[in-house]
Amino acid sequence: MSFTRTLIDNLRVKLGAMDPLPPPPPLPVVPYPPSRVFPTPRRRSAYAEAAAKHTTALVGIGHVGTRYATNVVLQFQAELAVAHAAVGTELPEGWAEANGLLPLHSQVTSHRQFLLRPDLGRRLDAPSLSRLGERARRGIDIQPILADGLSAIACMGSGLTLLGHFTRECEARGWSVGTPMCARFARVWLEDEIGETVNCKVAAILLGERPGLGTGDGLSAYLVYNPKIGRSDGDRNMMSNIHARGAPPEQAARRLAVLAGAMLDQKTSGVPLNLHGLDLGHEAGGGYRAPEPRVRLVYSGSDSSKEKA
Amino acid sequence: MNLSSSIRGVGYRFGSVKDVLAKSNPPKSGDDLAGISARDAVERVAARAVLAELTLADLRANPVVPFEIDELSRMVESTLNEDAYSAVKHLSVGQFREWLLEPTTRGPTLRAVAPGLTPEMAAATCKLMSNMDLLTVGAKCEVVVRANSTLGLPGRLSSRLQPNHPTDDVEGILYSTREGLSYGCGDAVIGVNPATDTPESTAQILTRLHEVRVKNNIPTQHCVLSHVTVQMKALDLGCPMDLMFQSMSGSEKGNRAFGISIALIDEAYAKMKAKTSNRGPNVMYFETGQGSALSSDAHHGADQVTLEARCYGFARRYKPFLVNTVVGFIGPEYLEDGPQITRAGLEDHFMGKLMGLPMGCDACFTYHARMTQDEVESLKVLLGVAGCTYLMSMPVGDDIMLNYQSTSFHDIPSVRGLLGKRPTPEFDAWLNEVGIMDGLKPGERFGDPGVLKR
Amino acid sequence: MILDRIVPRVLSVRRLPGADPALLAAYGADPKRHYALGLVTVDQDDPTYVALDEATKHARVDVVFAKSFYAGSAHASGALSGEILGVIAGADMADVDAGLHALIRCLEHDACFYTANDAGTITVFPHVVASLGRYLSAQSGLSVGQSMAYLVAPPMEHTIGLDAALKAADVRAARIFTPPTETNFAAAWLSGELTECQAAAEAYAAAVVEVGRSAWDRNLI
To answer: Least CB-CB distance to A58: which of B198, B296, B395?
Structure first.
């Protein structure tokens, strides 16, 4: 052992290494905080104002350090809560019949199973298959199928409108359209079995898409030519964001009809389908349509009265 | 080759290497959906005990999709670097894991071994590792690539700016782009997922993004993530394109569902190398994600981690500038909740880096998966610690087109600040020059999109 | 906490068998007696002088060269320079190896600087050599086998500390190095009985710590 190290270790103890910790230094004086160091902005920034004419993305929201201001956090959490609520909603039994649609049901038996077992959501249960065989028109050009997908709220909301517009667009082009129907706990590929059973040229499933932040009202449409079990994603064409802030149902119905027309002309769909020159956006859109502003969800205290106004 | 083990006197036998790989996987709803997962935690460990004893040579000889029916298996086999392979082929998977964890095994060594590893080897090792093991090795891997800027240097964390818009309104896209740049985002790429998959809209968005980049002299790259065939047509229209994108799957059949094949991507790569507007040499951008093969019934009974690694085997053929696992996007049927998504993000980053790819991760969840905002924020920090090359970024993490929750513009400078990381050196210099950043701290113009010329 | 050990880092160790005679001569070795050299660089100079002396007690080697570098290791000329180069020489490589082992052992387990304030910005070397070897005895003019207190600190701390050491124990000053040394410290070698050298080192260290705590004299109005 080192002489010096022993010596200095002992001295260290003598000088206070074993003493209890010294009392903490007094707390620094807190600078006088004005009641509103960070005033919650009463109006949107000029950038947010200008951007809102073109996008619903939350921009121009500022920052505190590198994080959000408190009002942004609360708006965000409220929107998240809306989305989660939309996912949890189920299409009520009997809704299809009540709206004059042929009711169909996939092999899924519960909401959790619907989320975890897409394979069951792609096939009809036995009663639905026989009902389809007995009651649906066969040998048609287009078979539209309304379905819940991942938002029953969207299906019940603008689903009927989209189905109606799309059916009229198809009929106006002289195509034969199948029996209106609605499938519960349905996945996209369910259109293959339905389309094969009714022997249509193009199957078009219109279903609730995954809810977005603060929204649960978006629909998507998936079209496939010559539907039959075993078709894959590359065989389909799709249109998403069918809702008031994206493509509204009437506009979307026209675009979908153009898409279906291309499938009937080219006798194919999916990746091989040539979309060149179709000009889907403009032909169907008829000019630019500004998105709706994002809805402010959180009001509190003295603000609450403004919500009613 | 031994395929049996015993735990507390109970014997377990497995039918094939593929079976051992599947049953070794930590719990994933996608493996349950495929009906291939271990029946309980004990069988899972029994499978891992077998896996730990298999050699890397055994794994090379037994790809999870047979050579005869899969071009990816054949391509990986025929292009494997034999020198790198022979350095490690004799190791068992358990020994290989320990070798990776040794402090003496460092970045350059890992980079040298990468071309000798098959996807099955990376996936097998992954299954013997805990999350912290994955962080430890992931952080050691060094994969540096270059386009208009240099990505993947140590101490850096980059981001993709993702200014998506539900109707491809270019003005809307540009508002999000300018906002993101003002938060120091977008040094990996400014990449737009288009709502409309046409060459004309692809070319239009690229052209406008290019204007922003050139007018403000921003050292980054741009990309529109339409189908590769659409981008090839857009290139023919004569638009600027810094990176060419495609989604990938882990089997020939899965790729067919995406409308691609090795021959098609070879052709796209050749065209891109000739026509790209980036300085290179890396010009491609690929996205992957566990579960994509199963979703098109193209998994051949293999587990989703191994199939994910096979995407990386495909991607590395093209020396990509970016590879991104969109980890929580696919939904709860493949990754049910926060712990599964977190695990998958760390797995994918580890496997990709081990195979020599510049891995980024879209730490995200869809609103029908059981993951909380707090969990996804934690994952972003974990990925930063693991040395993840880049994360996504968009306004409040909300993709208004694809409807899922990812990384926000605010999260990127937050994670960088927490971990002392900086963007690519070229972009870092630009941020400091225009006053968005002041070293590691927000600068005077931080969060002010007015800093960008219109 | 004060008086934490700052263990020296040996930055390089090289063996040089059959060194060129011109080199041997230039570095103070005797080409007739010395065949092999052992060279070290270390980031602390005074512990290294002690360690070089230690080598002479364990092996048939001579310390032929030992010099501190200007302004110390914080201003080193390179990653391997530290603040001292020490060279031992012997007739045979095995002797030099034994000397190097003794030297490194001493740096790892015995001689080291200590922190003298909580921030670690003041350091002190209050070392006691129980029994001098051939090198330090020659340098100090003391005899082989005598005890010596080897005291080093920054100029102000050292001056106050040295006074305390001389008054606290029955020791005499063999050599006093007024500031600045090459590394801008100050030092002293005190000799006496082993227990007296210990008492002197202890008083020296305590005084250095005290100066660090009250840099301004409280009695000054």
So the answer is: B395
Residue type, B274: A
Lowest mean pLDDT segment, chosen from A204-208, A304-308, B119-123: A304-308
Rounded to the nearest angstrom, the minimum Cα separation between A28 and chain C is 21
> Does a structural domain hold residue A42?
no
**Residue-wise pLDDT tens digits, B413-449:** 999 999 999 999 999 999 999 999 999 999 999 999 9
Read off the pLDDT of residues B112-126 as tens digits, 9 standing for 90 and up: 999 999 999 999 999
pTM: 0.74
**Mutation for C interface: A1, A3, A10, most C CBs within 10 A:** A3
Q: Are B391 and B360 in contact (CB under 8 A)?
A: yes
Nearest CA in chain A to C118: A17
Does residue A117 lie within any of the structural domains?
yes
Strand extents, DSSP E, chain A: 102-105, 142-147, 181-184, 202-208, 219-225, 236-242
C140 neighbors C148 (Cβ within 8 angstroms): yes
Mean pLDDT of chain B: 96
Instruction: Specify the pLDDT at position A296.
Output: 75
Sign of CA dihedral A138, A141, A145, A146: negative
Domain at A187, CATH number: 3.40.50.11240
ipTM for the complex shown:
0.91
In a domain? residue B319: yes
Instruction: Let me know if residue A184 belongs to a domain.
Output: yes
B227 touches chain A (CB under 8 A): yes
Q: Which domains does chain C have, with CATH numbers?
A: 5-112 (3.30.70.1710), 116-213 (3.30.70.1710)
User: Does residue A116 form part of some domain?
Assistant: yes
CA–CA gap between residue B219 and residue A235 (Å, rounded):
39
Among C166, A237, C64, CA closest to B197: A237
Q: Which two tokens stand for residue B303?
A: 């587990």
* Residue B54 placed within a domain: no
- Rounded CA Rg of chain C: 18
Residue A166's domain comprises 88-283
CA distance B56 to B93: 6
Chains within contact range of chain A (3+ C-beta pairs < 8 Å): B, C
The chain C residue lying nearest A3, using CA atoms, is C128
B419, B416, B436: which is closest to B427 by C-alpha?
A: B436
Structural domain boundaries, residue B372: 145-451
Q: What is the CATH number of the domain that holds B354?
A: 3.20.20.70
B17 lies in some domain: no
Q: Write out pLDDT tens, residues B209-249.
A: 999 999 999 999 999 999 999 999 999 999 999 999 999 99
User: Collapsing DSSP states into helix, strand and coil, what is residue C189?
Assistant: strand
A67–B410 CB contact, under 8 Å: yes
- Contact present, B314 and B346 (Cβ < 8 Å): no
Which residues does A contribute to its contact with C (CB < 8 Å)? 2-5, 7-12, 14-15, 17
Cα distance between residue B382 and residue B419, in whole Å: 10
